[in-house]
Structures are given as structure tokens and as C-alpha cells.
Write a structure and sequence with these properties.
flat; 526 residues; alpha+beta
Length: 526
Amino acid sequence: MKNIIVLVLLLTATSIYAQETGTAIGTKEDRKALFDYIIEKSKSRDAISVIKNRQFGFDPVEAMLRLENEFVNAKSVEAFWYALQKLSAARRDSHLSVDEVKNGVPKPEAAKGQAPVRFHPDFSDTARIFLFVSDIAKDLPALTSSKDLPQIGDKLISVNGKNAEQYLDSMRIYDGYSSTNNFLMRCAFQLSERSEKLPVSFYKENLELVLERKSGKKYSVSLPYLQQVNWTYGRELRDYPGYQLAWKKESFWVYTPTDPANKSILLWWYGFRSDLQVASDSLVSFAAKNGFIDYDLIIDAIDSRGGSQGAYALARFTSHPFKTTGGNVKISDITAEFITRNVKEYLSGKRRMDGSEAESENDGWLIDWLTNDVLKAVEAGQEYSNNTPFKNAHLPAYSDWVLKPAPNHMKGRLVVFFGPWGGSHLDQFSAMIYDNGIGYTMGMPAGGYSNTWEWSETLVFPKSKKPVAEFMWNIGHTIRPNGEVLEGNPAPVNLYIPVTRDNYLNYRKMLLKKAQEWLVEVRGKK
């Protein structure tokens, strides 16, 4: 009798769980209606980059439509969540994501952890890019019983029994990336992490790897997932021979030369953060006070995050006028509400923010444009608004987009290192420098993603009206100074030097030497 009661309780619990699971992801009819809604709104709202899609050789809507069966016929919360994530990622836009909402579909939980090894792409051959070991834990020998231990530069052959290329391809469908190089950078860094970003089927108890030495010897290693790793190097390899740290702010750190004959200042660039205006003005004041105002400026932006106000900084870093990036808005069903939100924020005195950075020096320019030009575009049934200086942050809509140097500015030459780790406003910074020819850029192109505006919406099942998740659309293009759409189309660099497993640890030193050689050569031509 007791066993029967236990069995009944178990069956009841299973039934309740099944009902709750079914409710969480709606009915098949709910999922079909929601899928159709997402497709419809993506067609009308998304600012689709033709140049990016041509380079990828795909159509984002067609890619989304291929996921209909998986989305509509999902049998569990996990299956539905990752189908939704794939649907978002199918557009290949780094800015767009899916997030949990209150009372919505719960994000699958995962036992988080980090294996004591990290990877980086070797870009020496664009047709055969592979990953290599870029960092290991200091106490690695104590963390595994494997005979052979990973070394910096070892090539990744397989992950958890799957060929490395196949494993990367299986990760790719969950990642909304705007450029292949940026995907490889981020994917390499995250490959040894265990999280809910990927289904649990990707993981084993340990990270099982096959690696290959430079000699060609292959070996296997099993690595545990840890809560904390004491890395040998870390991701940000700041190493600048001949320079010393003078001071630092959140946006960048300032290094001055130790040799009086070296007439350059170096910045390690963290991102376009909330203190960028203050930091840029402080740099100019510091340079003027200490006799550095005529020095050349070298910026290492390989590790940079995004943000805003790059044009403000450039107006203080160069003696040359330059054209800013621009932007527009895709006209759709949410444009009126988008304008209303901005106006309400403006009237309440709340400055528009992009992450932690104030976007605009004069929000009045933005509001004037939204309530005039953009409304007229809505009334006229246009597909896009007119192009203006980016978010009208530094210039009004009716201008030539050209910023003049600030009254107080650096007077030397400008050299900047870029790489595919970051994008967004970093991509704009790179485009303003390269397209205007106001500096010499080195390394590799930035991540290749940027848009003017995004729209987030809480999805609900159209039939049951139950909340699902937060879903995003890209609703505006960033325009490079050369007139091209930036998304998926990063500015090239003047001197292309790819990261490889052979130069990884000395990459910055190599770029710094090349920068100094170029500056000496240019000075000699004066």
C-alpha cells in the first residue's frame, strides 16, 4: 500500500511538472503565433546590413525561418529557450540578445565554472584559422592527473570528443556575431567556460581536450571546472618597454616615456566609459603642463570595450578636422513610441545613456531631430529617416558632420592599435580615424558591429498573453564617415599584422616597435 501511495505521489508530481513546463512554454499554437510575430517584426523593424549579409552570403530572415520547426515543436523549457536564442542569433548581430523577464520562460540553469586554460585564434592564415592555448593556471600541474600539460601556443584539436572546427560550428548557431573574427575571439575566450550560454549537452564533468604541440605531438588532457582561476598572464597583456604608468582613469591609462628622446605618450584604452570627457581633457592639461603637448600619441585599443563619446576624445587627440560617424532610424511600428520615450527622458532631465556613458553633449539636438525629421519620415512612409551625425551627440542634424579640433588639443601624430575583440563604439572610433586619414592604424580590424538604436520588447504569447522573454531588434544603422554602413563592415587598418600563436605574448611589443619606427620615418620626411 505504501509503495502504491508513493507511486501515486510521484505520478502526480510528474503530471504537475509537465503541466507547469507546458504552461511555461505555451501551447504549440502559442509558439507558432509567437514565431510568426517575431518574423513579421524582424522584417519591418530590423535595420539589415546588406553589406554584412553579402559578405556572409546569407539572408537573416531565411535563416530565421529555417528554425520554425524547432521553435514551434519544442518539448521542454530548455529546448524552447535555446530555440529562441538561436532565432535571435540567426540575424548575426552582436548587439542583439535574449534575456529573462519576470514570470516569463526561465533561463536554463547550469553549474558554472572555468577550466584552467584559455584559447585565442591564430589568424596567420585566414583560410585555416585555428585556436591555440593563450593562458594557463599558475597551479595547473596540481589540477590534473594528465601526463602532458597545456603550453602556450599548443593547437586545439578536439573538445569533449568533437573535432575543434565542428565544436566551433556547433557553438556558432547560439551566438549573434557580426563578424567572423569577433566570433572567434569571443568563442575562444569562452570555450573553456561552463555556463547557461550553451545547452548542458555541450559539457562533460571535466573539459576533455586533445591538443597539439608545435612539434606535431598530440596529447589528451582532462581539466576540471573551477570557481576561480589564478591565471599566468590574464587577457590584457599590458607590456610597453620604455614607458612608465603616469596615471589612470576608467577609460584609459596614461604611460609616459622613460627616455627623453622618445617623444610619444602611450594610452592603454579600456573603453569609452563615463569619465571619457574628463579623462580626455585631463590628458591634454597634463600634456600641456608637462611639456608633452607636441608629443605623438600611441593608443593601444586592442582590449577596448564600447561606449560613446569617441568623437569628443578625437577632437582633443588630433590637430585635424574630421568627419564623424552618422546614423539613422528604421521607420516601423515602434518609431512613435521610440520618439515618445526619448522626449519623456529629455523632459524629465534624465540624460540618455549608453551603458554607463552619456551619449550626447546636447540632447536638444537629438530631440529636435526626432520630433521633426523623424516624425516627417514616419508621415511620409519612408523606410529610414535621414542620416545625421551619430545620435546628434556632437553636431546638429543640419551640419557637414565635420568636427574641428577642440581649442586645447594634442598636436602630435596619432597611432592606434586595433583588434577584433571589441566593437560597437570602438568600430566607430576606428572608422573616424581611418576614413578621415587622421591617424595611422595597426594590428587587425575591430569587431565589426555598431548600430545607432536598439529596441527591447517583452515578448508575450499572442494567444495566452503570458510573458516569454526580452527580445531585441536593431532599429538603426551606423554610417561610417566614408558613407558605408558600419555593421559587419569594419574599417581596415593601415598596417595589417595578425595575431598568431608565435607572436601572441609579444604582440603588443611588436606593434609598439612598428609604431615607433613609423613615427621616426614620418618625422624624417618633414
